[in-house]
Inverse folding.
């Protein structure tokens, strides 16, 4: 047997019981790697359950910066006898299995290294409190790992101090547990593990945070004041992040009053209704939800589209259809968001690919919604939203002002003879609006979801209604010029074959392209960041004979959208689809593309692993 | 409905209020509701209340859902912004609008289908959150716009225009609102302007969830002999708990009622609502006695009208959420954006 030997490139998988307090210890482990200067990508694979079911935490460590998910683990920390068999299968040959040897076990695999630590016994001997005995097992294995991987133990001591700031009593027992593991490994497990962490500088200028935290912060920076939401995994943490950051950053000093209002609504319909009401009245309101919420909100989204009320909505996509896999990731709401609601509707989508973009797009979404007077949906997903990502730090330009769009205030109205809420004065399809209370005699209008003329009056005149619908199409054209451009991996196109992808797939794409490059396959790559598609998107498609579209859904929804919006012939677009609920891997992408190019040219490359 | 376009010229001798405005200045577009519709009388009462209180129409927002009632906001207060939203969802839109700018007066106009069926969830939660809104249900016991189906406020065993029996008991929205701690609950009749206008005026001055269940007969589908929401039935079975009179702040308090028989309730801004007590055991500030009174009237087949419940002590939503006094829609970048320096500190926390 040859042991896996690696420095700063490996995957470690923690198998725990849900509700056992493992998540924070595992997160601490990942943060320790990040603080060692090595990029890290932790992924929490959790059940829709509060206590008892198996849960996993995968950490990919990659100095090269490959932060997508990778199949197979090099180290497994097996803390859950329920899932031993499965966990064992996922351990690569030559890898390391760390388990609680308080109860010894024969794992019947001769091609792996078994690392025995009697975690329960150590904790029972050291701690008298039964809760501590249970919780500290997690900290003990972090301590042991820091020795096994040759990390600086001090990093974890500092992390413990930071984590329990304000609850100082908890610091000492946690540090004790850390040392317990570290010392046990030093005394009993010398030179057993050939996977190491070596201090590096690759996380300089980087942060470790989740997309939802970043989006919540982006809403604060973007000037959102009204947040109405209904709890749903995986979007809940976005509203909670907005709450936390608002409490820290948005309380008026003199009065101790809030410069924001947050309501946990009675359902998703009310949540989006509140956000629409706030925006109609000139404040920046938003809601956050997931696929089922989009279904519920669709009627209101149609109203905001047709009545031209700005609205910002975050869809943190999860596995569908129906209730689906609430704790697994997918990109399967692309079509339901792009065309949400009955009748002819099209919505602006922003598709971030890392927390930094989540922050930026969240703030920008409010400007775009106000500028275009329409719903803007930020399309994230569970993997991006709930997991911590290593990404460049947030930046803000203090000279930036909010773009509130075309709003006529009292003074403006004084000078205007003829105000029509839906008049296309500038020829870009975007009309002027007024806030309630703007002027005693001018500017009032009746907002409605029924057909209306340029002056917001109800009309059943089909020609007038068609004229309005056509203007909305013109506005949508204008929107395509305002939304973020696609990002290209190459400066100029060099291949006749291209790949199109979006969102959290970014994490695996560079690695996939590098793997293909090793095989001699060179592809041009474009990452979509928004809908409607702009000219650059269409030019890229035009410039290539064959395009792979990599998505995390079953039906190739972005491919359908591209075909529908651009009249692109289906033969030119080949889907690469992963929809098993796990984040897509570089191996999956490169294998599917490679096998298509080398002779199994099915029109779709479908499936999970 | 009338097809006569209203002339824009005003008679020079029209009565003017404190703002120098006439009733004509509070008008809306021409109603497209049926001639004799109770809703039009309610619109007229709202207009009258706003005129008498000398309210600036542009500082009022009119919000509604879907249905005949929800069309009504177009027929009064042309200088107010209006929002005809989606069916049963007016309360959420009103909540968002109110949070954006608490300084305006929000008139929520709904119907019995809009509130007691599709929108009952939002109604309940707006009431329990004490949203500062005047919430009017124009209650005709029927789905008028879809031609006469029963609504959930229609009485058990009452007949439709087509002779069908209503198989299910009715929902009493006023009783429900009291249960939910709505801080102002009244019931009235669209045809009783004397009672309705003072109640509307008081509701407009009340801070918190002001609910008015206004029986408003549907002349087209629910005004026949067997209806319990017809003009005739309501006139015969109306039992009033109080005859209200509204006294705005700063005006000399005069009431037409004898001392001892009237009770005066001060509202948040110091204005008073005077109620003539018709019943000795009735106290509008006691939840339990209000509910008992409603139930007793119902047993007798009576519709209890007047101010049924009031609580002037409760906090409204804005206060509960501890929101700043400056309206949120008037806060600038300086107020809202924490800036680059704070962001750098946040970055540091995330390393």
């Amino acid at each position: 047997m040859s042991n896996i030997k690696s420095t700063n490139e490996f995957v470690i998988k923690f198998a725990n019981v849900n509700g056992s307090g493992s998540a924070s210890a595992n997160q601490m482990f990942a943060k320790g790697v990040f603080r060692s200067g090595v990029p890290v990508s932790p992924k929490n694979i959790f059940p829709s359950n509060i206590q008892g079911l198996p849960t996993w935490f995968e950490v990919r460590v990659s100095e090269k910066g490959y932060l997508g998910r990778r199949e197979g683990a090099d180290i497994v920390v097996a803390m859950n006898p329920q899932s031993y068999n499965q966990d064992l299968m996922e351990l690569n040959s030559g890898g390391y299995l760390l388990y609680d040897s308080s109860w010894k076990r024969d794992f019947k695999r001769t091609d792996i290294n078994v690392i025995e630590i009697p975690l329960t016994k150590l904790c029972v001997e050291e701690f008298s409190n039964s809760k501590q005995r249970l919780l500290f097992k997690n900290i003990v294995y972090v301590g042991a790992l820091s020795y096994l991987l040759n990390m600086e133990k001090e990093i974890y001591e500092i992390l413990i101090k930071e984590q329990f700031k304000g609850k100082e009593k908890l610091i000492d027992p946690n540090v004790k547990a850390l040392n317990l593991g570290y010392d046990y490994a030093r005394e009993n497990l010398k030179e057993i593990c050939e996977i190491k962490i070596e201090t590096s500088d690759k996380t300089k200028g980087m942060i470790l945070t989740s997309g939802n935290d970043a989006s919540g912060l982006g809403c604060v920076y973007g000037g959102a004041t009204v947040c109405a939401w209904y709890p749903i995994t995986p979007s809940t943490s976005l509203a909670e992040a907005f709450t936390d950051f608002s409490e820290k950053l948005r309380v008026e000093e003199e009065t101790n009053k809030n410069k924001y209002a947050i309501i946990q609504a009675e359902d998703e319909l009310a949540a989006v209704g509140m956000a629409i009401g706030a925006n109609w009245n000139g404040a920046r309101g938003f809601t956050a939800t997931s696929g089922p919420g989009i279904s519920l909100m669709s009627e209101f989204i149609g109203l905001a589209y047709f009545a031209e009320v700005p609205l910002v909505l975050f869809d943190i996509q999860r596995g569908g259809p129906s209730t689906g896999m609430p704790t697994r990731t997918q990109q399967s709401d692309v079509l339901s968001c792009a065309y949400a609601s009955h009748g002819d509707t099209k919505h602006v989508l922003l598709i971030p690919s890392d927390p930094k973009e989540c922050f930026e797009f969240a703030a920008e979404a409010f400007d775009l919604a106000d500028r275009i007077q329409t719903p803007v949906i930020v399309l994230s997903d569970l993997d991006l939203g709930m997991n911590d990502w290593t990404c460049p730090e947030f930046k803000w330009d203090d000279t930036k002002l909010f773009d509130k769009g075309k709003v006529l205030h009292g003074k403006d109205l004084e000078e205007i003879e003829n105000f029509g809420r839906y008049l296309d004065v500038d020829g870009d399809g975007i009309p002027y609006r007024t806030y309630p209370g703007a002027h005693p005699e001018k500017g009032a209008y009746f907002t409605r979801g029924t057909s209306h003329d340029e002056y917001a009056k109800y009309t059943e005149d089909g020609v007038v209604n068609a004229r309005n619908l056509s203007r909305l199409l013109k506005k949508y054209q204008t929107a395509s010029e305002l939304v973020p451009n696609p990002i290209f991996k190459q400066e100029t196109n060099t291949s006749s074959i291209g790949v199109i992808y979006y969102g959290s797939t970014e994490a695996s794409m560079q690695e996939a392209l590098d793997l293909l490059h090793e095989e001699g396959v060179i592809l041009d790559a474009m990452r979509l960041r928004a809908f409607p598609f702009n000219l650059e998107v269409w030019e890229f498609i035009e410039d290539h004979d064959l395009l792979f579209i990599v998505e995390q859904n079953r039906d190739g929804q972005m491919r359908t959208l591209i075909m529908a919006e651009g009249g692109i012939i289906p033969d030119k677009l080949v889907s690469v689809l992963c929809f098993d609920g796990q984040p897509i891997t570089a191996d999956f992408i490169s294998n599917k593309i490679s096998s298509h190019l080398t002779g199994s040219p099915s029109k779709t490359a479908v499936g999970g692993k | 409905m009338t097809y006569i376009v209203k002339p824009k010229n005003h008679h020079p001798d029209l009565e003017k209020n404190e703002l120098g405005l006439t009733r004509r200045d509070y008008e809306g577009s021409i109603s497209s509701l049926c001639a004799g519709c109770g809703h039009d009388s309610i619109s007229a009462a709202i207009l009258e209340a706003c005129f008498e209180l000398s309210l600036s129409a542009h500082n009022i927002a009119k919000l509604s859902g879907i249905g005949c009632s929800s069309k009504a906001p177009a027929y009064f207060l042309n200088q107010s912004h209006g929002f005809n939203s989606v069916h049963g969802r007016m309360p959420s839109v009103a909540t968002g609008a109110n949070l954006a700018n608490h300084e305006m007066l929000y008139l929520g106009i709904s119907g019995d289908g809009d509130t007691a069926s599709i929108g009952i969830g939002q109604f309940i939660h707006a009431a329990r959150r004490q949203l500062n809104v005047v919430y009017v249900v124009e209650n005709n016991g029927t789905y008028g716009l879809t031609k006469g189906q029963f609504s959930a406020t229609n009485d058990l065993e009452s007949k439709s225009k087509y002779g069908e029996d209503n198989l299910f008991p009715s929902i009493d929205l006023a009783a429900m609102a009291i249960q939910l701690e709505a801080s102002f609950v009244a019931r009235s009749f669209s045809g009783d302007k004397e009672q309705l206008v003072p109640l509307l005026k008081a509701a407009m001055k009340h801070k918190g969830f002001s609910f008015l269940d206004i029986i408003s007969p549907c002349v087209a589908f629910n005004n026949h002999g067997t209806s319990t929401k017809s003009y005739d039935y309501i006139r015969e079975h109306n039992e009033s708990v109080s005859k209200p009179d509204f006294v705005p702040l700063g005006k000399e308090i005069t009431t037409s009622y004898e001392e001892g028989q009237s009770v005066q309730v001060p509202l948040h801004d110091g204005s008073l609502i005077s109620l003539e007590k018709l019943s000795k055991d009735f106290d509008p500030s006691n939840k339990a006695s209000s509910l008992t009174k409603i139930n007793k009237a119902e047993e007798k087949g009576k519709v209890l009208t007047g101010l049924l419940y009031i609580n002037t002590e409760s906090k409204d939503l804005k206060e509960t959420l501890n929101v700043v006094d400056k309206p949120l829609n008037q806060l600038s970048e300086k107020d809202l954006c924490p800036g680059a320096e704070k962001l750098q500190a946040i970055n540091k926390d995330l390393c």
About this structure: Residues 23-325 of chain B form a domain with the Rossmann fold fold (CATH 3.40.50.970). The longest strand of chain B covers residues 303-310.
